[in-house]
Design brief:
Elements: E1 4-6, H1 49-76, H2 78-84, H3 93-108, H4 110-121, H5 127-146, H6 155-188, E2 193-197, E3 202-206, E4 215-218, E5 228-232, E6 235-238, H7 240-243, E7 249-251, E8 256-257, E9 262-263, E10 268-272, H8 280-293, H9 297-326, H10 331-345, H11 348-367, E11 370-372, H12 375-380, H13 414-422
Parallel strand pairs: 1-11
Antiparallel strand pairs: 2-3, 2-4, 4-10, 5-8, 5-10, 6-7, 6-9
């Protein structure tokens, strides 16, 4: 079978559509990067592929730049120097540290600031809010330390937090792009042009312009441009890329044909059943696209955890500040403890682990030709103990090959038969 799908186990598909936007206004901050549309065929509703590729490139660029700046930031940080037993401080080193950290904070942290604003607008604080809040608190406090406030800066914690979160986002987006290659293969099944039969001529038109009751001509060896019924002629059609059945299927007048199947030796005229956007292939593409937009139980759990972590971090941070300040400690001492609590509460592992799991599962599925219909169903598939196939003849790889050679004459060896056949 060329391409398989994991069928429904539970219903929880996300069917929201995201229209392509101006690149300069794109929000790169959302964790659910799978909500971008993929592909290059407008008739398939897949216009967002280039946008998604640009987003991947943007996060890749931000990650590597932050990585380069993080190394000197850590080496110039007092805590790291104490940990490795060196003293590399010099006149003006704290200002260099501030400059480097400012680049990381504003450039690397920009997607998280946009995410923070979005979550505030939707009144649904989550991981973006917590990350944005934590790095802002760390930067403001560290900035004050550089210019006289007593305490220890948090520049290296700020840089590593942004670095890890950028890596998590980049990995997640790459996994979605990898799975999108399967969608591209589906889109490529549809021919770009079709031969539309007019009263006095045959005119080549774009496939997406076809509509119901149009008549198209499918020549030998060409792909069928639209779902429909055979009006005239007969032929054998190869539907292996769609159904998994490797044997060509005979089609005669009045029978249905599927867009994307390959015509055999005969010419046929087909009455189009519906527009290309409603074709079997288009519906299959939308099905897989919706699956990429949906979230598994693990991702939903991570979102819920991030929301509660945000609330806990803010409450614990404010509580820590009030406790130390009201018990007589200095403002600097209380602020340092507050920022420490907030930064520690930030989910470094959560921000990296969940995208890694999604990336690995998606990559393995795509590699094995699985088109996932529902992420939750896919997650539940680990509980499957038995698979029942309803009939034989469809469990193939979609192509013919010689599986065994048997000689009916003793004087003909297997090698001799192969030599004669190849000649």
């Amino acid at each position: 079978m060329k391409m398989d799908k994991v069928d429904d186990v539970s219903k929880n598909n996300s069917t929201k559509k995201v229209e392509p936007k101006d690149d300069s206004k794109m929000d790169h901050s959302k964790m659910d990067h799978s909500k971008m549309q993929h592909g290059s065929n407008p008739s398939m509703g897949m216009e967002g592929h280039n946008h998604h590729a640009m987003m991947i490139a943007d996060f890749k660029k931000r990650f590597y730049l932050v990585l380069i700046f993080t190394v000197p930031i850590m080496l110039l940080s007092t805590m790291i120097q104490k940990f490795i037993g060196v003293d590399w401080e010099f006149s003006g080193s704290k200002y260099i540290l501030l400059a480097l950290s400012s680049v990381v904070f504003f450039y690397g942290g920009w997607p998280f600031f946009k995410g923070l604003v979005t979550e505030i607008k939707t009144k649904n604080p989550g991981m973006m809010f917590l990350i944005g809040f934590a790095i802002t608190a760390a930067y403001i406090y560290s900035f004050a330390v550089v210019f006289g406030l007593k305490g220890m800066d948090f520049f290296w914690e700020l840089a590593t937090l942004i670095l890890i979160m950028l890596l998590g986002h980049w990995i997640e987006m790459k996994s979605v792009a990898g799975a999108s290659k399967e969608l591209e293969l589906l889109v490529q099944l549809m021919p770009a042009d079709a031969h539309m039969v007019m009263p006095d001529m045959v005119h080549d038109v774009k496939t997406e312009t076809l509509k119901e009751n149009d008549v198209i001509l499918v020549k030998p060896g060409e792909k069928v441009a639209a779902d429909g019924l055979i009006l005239e002629g007969e032929s054998y059609l190869n539907e292996s890329m769609i159904t998994g059945e490797s044997k060509p299927v005979q089609k005669i007048k009045g029978q249905k044909v599927i867009a994307g199947s390959i015509n055999g030796n005969g010419s046929i005229k087909v009455t189009v059943s519906h527009a290309s956007k409603d074709s079997y292939i288009s519906q299959l593409v939308k099905l897989v696209d919706n699956a990429q937009k949906s979230k598994s139980k693990t991702q939903l759990l991570a979102d819920t955890t991030a929301k509660w972590l945000t609330i806990i971090a803010i409450v614990a941070g404010i509580g820590t500040f009030l406790f130390w300040f009201l018990t007589g400690e200095t403002l600097a001492f209380a602020m340092e403890r507050m920022v420490t609590v907030i930064v520690i509460c930030c989910p470094h592992a959560l921000g990296l682990a969940v995208p890694l799991v999604v990336a690995k599962s998606t990559a393995i599925s795509a590699k094995n030709g699985l088109l996932i219909k529902d992420r939750i169903a896919f997650e539940n598939s680990r509980k499957i103990t038995t698979i029942v196939f309803d009939k034989t003849g469809t469990l193939t790889v979609g192509k013919f090959e010689v599986s065994k050679i048997v000689s009916l004459k003793k004087e003909l060896t297997e090698d001799e038969i192969i030599r004669i056949a190849s000649a």
